[in-house]
Amino acid sequence: MKKIVMSAVALTAMMGSTSVVSAEDGFNIFSDIKLKGQVRPRYEIADVKDNGLEKGQAFTVRTHLSVTAGLLEVEGLSATLGIQTINNLGYTNYSLPSTSPKKYDVVNDPQAAMLSEASVDYKVGKTAIHAGRSQLNLDNQRFIGTVGWRQLERSYDTVSATNTDIENLEVMAAYLYGYAGVGGTTTTETSSAFLHAKYKVMDELTITAYDYMMASQNDTIGLALTGNAALEGVKLDYRAEYAIQKDPTLEFRVENVKADATYYNLDLGANISGILAGVNYEVMSGSDGASKTTFNPAFGTNHKFNGWADVFYVGNAGPSGGLKDANVRLGYAAKGFGKVLAVYHDFQSDVAMAAASGTTNNLGSEIDVLYANAIPGVKGLSGLLKYASYTKGDATGFANATKDKQVAWAQLDYKF
Predict the structure, then answer these.
(1) 79, 103, 291, 367: least surrounded by Cβ within 10 Å?
(2) Which long-range contacts (CB under 8 A, 24 or more apart) does 203-208 make?
(3) d(CA 284, CA 303)
């Protein structure tokens, strides 16, 4: 970890000195150099009841450094290089998903180091062109996200173009050729494409359409309506979204990969003088064992959805019966006080699943609570306490949902 941090410092110094030396000759290779960083220590404890394993306890530190600079004195041309390291400081009382045999419950934060950014960007007029590795989040991160909650955040290798020539309309096309992070640093190669368009009609209505053509996964096509409004001291926001998954398109097809699934999400939130309230209903269809498949948001930041205990962290291994998540949230936020939030989830399967006696749709319930606040006196420093408690349902057909689970976190986050 020390070597990598020192390398980043050395890189910054080198870029700075190169710029100065070149300036004497009338030409700068790098200019307007900007350094960004994050240090995020976290203690996490995971306890799955009656599974024969000891509690998983992890103390890890994420260090993320990136440097962005103008390139070759070309207007609009820049380059970014970043690294992230995860260090457990020798505290190894936890298992990883790949650990075998396991002694402790899983905390998916491996000790690792990886190149998180390595890209060139060029902006001309209202068109931005990007090539290389970066951390990409689209919309609410349900389908394309970095999984920033895990310490080893995901990075995507893309070539993309984004245009805003038409007022209130943003259009993006991207080719995805690899990704890495979350569970490990090995790059997974792929040949996939994203099409994404967002049009703001008014404050109360933004229309977003997308087509995520993921090789080896599916072709996800969807439409979302979002907006916000203020009514006599009450600030409202909403989301209404529908998506389907089909076989990967011809250009990005992997043989024998099939998909036929549906998704919808309805959300309404309110802020009344700092009091936060909301209701949400999200449905991912399940497999019927024949033509229908389970909806799979494999590249999303799934920790944001369906409970923080990550029982239903879908990826490639969600419940075959799909998932219906009806949840309500209540909290309070104010400057100086910070934010407190509680969420209650009721989980049901879309298609009935096996139970101890017959079948059931009951996949359990969960209570999530957090408190977050900026820490006074230190610019860029914040703290977080977070807790999730999952109670199992009657279903026996999805292993993750057959045991009660509790997870707790204490975290500091310093950004500069």
Answers:
(1) 291
(2) 203/227, 203/228, 203/229, 204/228, 204/229, 208/139
(3) 15
The parts of the chain modelled with pLDDT lower than 70 are 1-26, 250-255, 314-317
Cβ–Cβ under 8 Å, residues 298 and 248 = no
What single letter denotes the amino acid at residue 84? Q
Distance between CA atoms of residues 317 and 398, nearest Å? 9
With beta carbons less than 8 A apart as the criterion, state whether 33 and 78 touch.
Answer: no
What does the pLDDT read at residue 255?
A: 64
3-state SS, 262-309, equals EEEEEEEEEEECCEEEEEEEEEECCCCCCCCCCCCCCCCCHHHCCCCC
For tokens 């999303």, the residue is 300
> Burial letters for 254-287: b for 16+ Cβ neighbours within 10 Å, e otherwise?
eeeeebbbbbbbebebebeeeebebebebbbbbb
Nearest to 374 by CA among 383, 366, 365: 383
Token pair 């590795």 is found at 133
Helix boundaries (H) for 28-153: none
